[in-house]
Design a protein that fits this description.
Layout (H helix, E strand, L loop, with lengths): L5 E16 L7 E17 L2 E10 L2 E10 L3 E12 L5 E2 L4 E13 L4 E14 L2 E4 L2 E7 L2 E11 L2 E10 L4 E7 L5 H5 L5
Antiparallel strand pairs: 1-2, 2-3, 2-6, 3-4, 4-5, 5-7, 7-8, 8-9, 8-10, 10-11, 11-12, 12-13
């Protein structure tokens, strides 16, 4: 006979200078957060931890829920109606600016993790290129950050794009289709 262990509780969590790395070296930072707050409920037993929480990163607010199995890893769902990328000082070494709603999930174990999320961005810049208000999917797996099925519009010019960032070799591949556009629209920030 083995006694059962079970714990339910309300919890508040605060973290500072949190980093998620893609490898063993300090320069392989995927995400860096200056501050992270979470408030919610958690249940804990001999097999896993389950939680639901309200999150805050800078001024960004969202929700997360998930399960962490001690043997099999984790699966976490998250969402926010508006995320400002300025509150994430490091995101895979990329220059990303703008706002976006986000809905997605992350899963993995102590050896590797993946994520997939849907974005609906506003006034979005990627590596100083203005992309307008794109929608698409952002995913990460084994050192590759992918923007897939991206559809947007710059001024009056619609576009479709796919971008692959290889974080292992620091390279970027992009495919884009613009039926028509002006090059200055991609570079200039202060239109009138």
């Amino acid at each position: 006979f083995s006694p059962a262990f079970f714990l339910n509780c309300q919890a508040d969590l605060e973290g500072h200078k949190i980093e998620v790395q893609t490898g063993d070296h300090h320069e392989n930072v995927l995400v860096h957060l200056n501050q992270f707050l979470a408030s919610g409920k958690m249940s804990l037993d001999k097999e896993n931890v389950k939680f639901q929480a309200d999150l805050k990163v800078g001024e960004n607010q969202g929700k997360a829920q998930g399960q962490i199995s001690y043997r099999e890893g984790f699966n976490i769902q998250f969402s926010t109606p508006e995320f400002n990328f300025k509150h994430v000082p490091v995101l895979a070494g990329l220059n990303i600016e703008g706002l976006s709603s986000i809905e997605g999930s992350t899963w993995g174990d102590s050896h590797a993790a993946e994520f997939k999320m849907n974005l609906a961005a506003q006034e979005f810049f990627f590596e100083n290129f203005y992309l307008g208000n794109p929608r698409g999917e952002l995913s990460y797996k084994k050192g590759f950050l992918n923007f897939k099925n991206v559809a947007g519009q710059i001024k009056t010019a619609p576009y479709n794009a796919e971008v692959e960032v290889n974080l292992n070799s620091s390279t970027l591949k992009a495919k884009a289709q613009f039926p028509n556009f002006e090059v200055n629209d991609l570079m200039y920030r202060d239109w009138e």
